[in-house]
Amino acid sequence: MNLFISSFKMKKFIKRGIVFLLLTLIVLLSLGISSVLITQQTFNYSICEDKNILIVGNSHTECGINDKVLKRSTNLSKSASSFFYHYIKLKSFSSKNSHIDTIIVSLNYDDLWEIREDRFLGDERIEQKMNQNIFMFAIEDYFDLLKANPVSVILQSLVMYSEFYNLQIEGRSLIGGYKILERYKLEQAKEIFWEEKEEDSSGVISQSELKYLIRVYKYCESHHLKLILINTPLHPLLEKELNKHEKDHIDLINKNMPNASYLNHANFVLPDSAFSDLSHLNYKGATIYSQYLQKQFDK
Amino acid sequence: MLFNSLDFFLFLPIVFFLYWKYNNIKTQNILILISSYVFYGWWDWRFLFLIFMSTVVDYFVALSIENNSDSKKRKRILYISVFFNLALLGVFKYFNFFIDSWVDFISIFGYNIENTWSLKIILPVGISFYTFQTMSYSLDVYRRELKTTKDFISFASFVSFFPQLVAGPIERASHLLPQILNKRKFSYIQSVEGLRLILWGLFKKVVIADSLSLLVNPIFDNYLNLNGGVLLLGLIYFSFQIYCDFSGYSDIAIGTAKLFGIELRSNFIFPYFSRDIAEFWRRWHISLSSWFKDYLFIPLGGSKKGKWMSIRNVFIIFIVSGFWHGANLTFIIWGLSHSMLYLILSLRNQNRRFTTVIVAENSLFPSLKECYQITITFLSVMLTWVFFRSDSVTEAFLYLLRMFTDIAFPNVYRSGFIYVILIVLFDWWNRKDERKPLNINSFYFRWTSYVILIILILGHSGQKNEFIYFQF
User: How far separated are the first and last CA of chain A, in Å rounded?
Assistant: First the structure.
C-alpha cells in the first residue's frame, strides 16, 4: 500500500466511514428488533370464536376460497407463499386461537416441485415476504431461512422495520386473506401454456418445500388439528397436463402424511367464465367453489 | 447497473479504493474506462460497441478537423460525427416512430398498408446522452474552442465516465476532459460532499419519486374513473416524481464523480422555485438546455436576427428538445407547449428577468409577488407534464378535460401530498446551494440526519424502479 493508506485524509475518510457504518448498522438493527417486538405485542391474532377453520396457502386458496362464503373459515393465504410461511402462520394463529380445529393447506400438483422452491429461498421472495412475516418467526425459523439464503436474509435483516408501518396500518390483510380476482387472462394464459408446458412439467420434488409441509403435518398431529390438503380447481387444459402426476402426488401424501385428508378438486367442473387463468379462480369461480366446500363441511 | 441497486453499492467502493490506490493518471483513467464499460455492460454488454464506435468516430473526426485548416474540409469532416451520432439515434431511437408515422400519414389518403418495417429494437440506455456528449467534443474542436487530445484512453474515459454515462448530466469536453487529463488529488471535503449528494439523491429517488410513482401510475391508468381533484393530485405528484427521479439521479452522478476527484456540472437548481418559464429552463435539465442553446439555438441565429427568426428558433429548440426525449408525438406537444410559454415572455423581452439569484436569497420566505410568480410558473409547467406522462396526445387531452370539468375534492390518493410537502421544505431549506445538501453545522444533528435518511431509503428500497430518464 503506497501513499493511499498512509495519506492522512484518506485514513480519516476510511476511519470515519467505518465508524458511521457501524453506528448505522447498530441503529438499523435496534430499530428492526424493536419494530418486530412491538408488532409481536400489538398484532391482532384473534379469530372469531365461530370460525374453526384456518386456511393457509398460496394464490390457489387465496383466490379460490372466499371465507365470507365458507363461513366457518379464516383465509390467510397469500400468493407465491412457500410452505415455510404456511407453517409460520399456522403456528402463530392456532396457538393463539384454541377454537381452531381444522387447517386447510393448499397443495396443488406442482406446489412441491423444485421449480417452486424460489418461493422459499429466492431473493425476490425473501425480499417480499420475510419482513412481512418476521414477527411470527421463532428463532429457529429465522436460522432455517438464513441457512437457505444467507445473503438475502442478512440484507433483509437490516430492514426488518420496513413493514412495520404497513403492518400497523393494514394489519392481518398484509399477511394474507381472500383476494377477489376480477382479471380475465384465460385466453392469454392458454397461449402461454403451450409455450411453457415443457419447462413446467418436470415433477422433481423440492426437499425444502416437502420438509415444511411435513412440519405443518407434524404440528397438526401434535396439536390434534385436522389437516386437509386441498388441490383447488384447475382449468381442464392444465388439469389434463398435470394429472399425469396424480399417482406420485397421492403416494407422496400417503407416505409422508398418512393421517391428513386430501381433497383433490383439480378436476372440479367449472365453466371457463369461472377462471381468471388456468390455475386461479375469479370471483365467480371462488363463490361457486366455496359454496360447494360449505356444503361439504355442513355434511 | 442501477444507482439504487446493491450491485452498485458493491461496485462503487471497489472502484473507489482501486482508483485511489493507484494514484497515477494513466492507471486511474484505464480504471475509469474499464469500470464504466463494466457498469454499462451490466445492463446489456451487446450495446458497448455503440459507445465504442461513437468514441472512435469522434476521436478521429476531431483529430482530422484540427489537422485541417481548410474550412470547407473541416465542415465536411464534422458532418461525419454529426451524421454518425444522429444515425445511431435515428436507428435505435426513432426508426419505428418514423415508419409508424409514415404509415399513419399514408392512411390519411386512403392507402392502408400493412406495416411490416417496424423493428423490434431495444433502446440502448443512455444513447441520447453519450451521443450528444461526443458530438459536442467534435463541435467544440471545429469551432476552435477546444484542443483535441491524442490520449485515446482519456478520451474514451470522458465519453463513458460511468457516473453520468446513462442519464447525464451531459458534460462538455471543455469541462470534463481537462479534469480527466490532469492529476486528481484525493480531497476529504470533496468526498464527503460527494457522499452527501449520493445520499440526498437516493432519498429523492427512492423515498420521494418511487413512492409518488405508486400513486401516479394508478391515477394515470384509471383517469377516466377518477374525479378532477384526484387528477390534479396526479399531475402534482408526477411533477415532483419526475423532478425527484431525475434530479436525484443527477445528484448521485455528481456525488459519485466527486468521489473520484471530478466535478460535474449542476443539472438542476431548484426549478420549481422559478419565477417564470425562462428561469425554469435555466434551472431544469441545465446540461441539455444549454447544449441546445449552444449548438442549435445560437448557430441558428438565436434572438439576434429579428423577431420572426427568434420565434422560429425558439420553436425549433423546444420541439427538438421534446423530440430528444422520445419518439412520440406527446413529447413534441410537450416541447411545443413550452415554446409557447417561453415566447410569451420572450416577445415582451421579459425572458432575462431572473438569471442568477435564487428566490428569497436573503430572506426566509418569498414575498407575496414571488409566491404568485412561483405558483403560476409551477402550474404552467405542471399542465405540460400531462403530455410528457400520457401514452398518447388524445389521452393527455382527455386527462386535462376531465380534470377541468369534473371538479371535486380529491377523495383518494391524498397520502402522497406528504412527500410533496417534504421535498418542497427540504429544497427551500437547501436553496442557496444545490451542491451542498445536508450541510448542517452541528456534527450530531448532521450524523443523525444521515442515519434517518438511510433508514428511510432502506425502508423504501423494496420497489427498485428504474430511473425515468433511462428510457430517453
Answer: 80
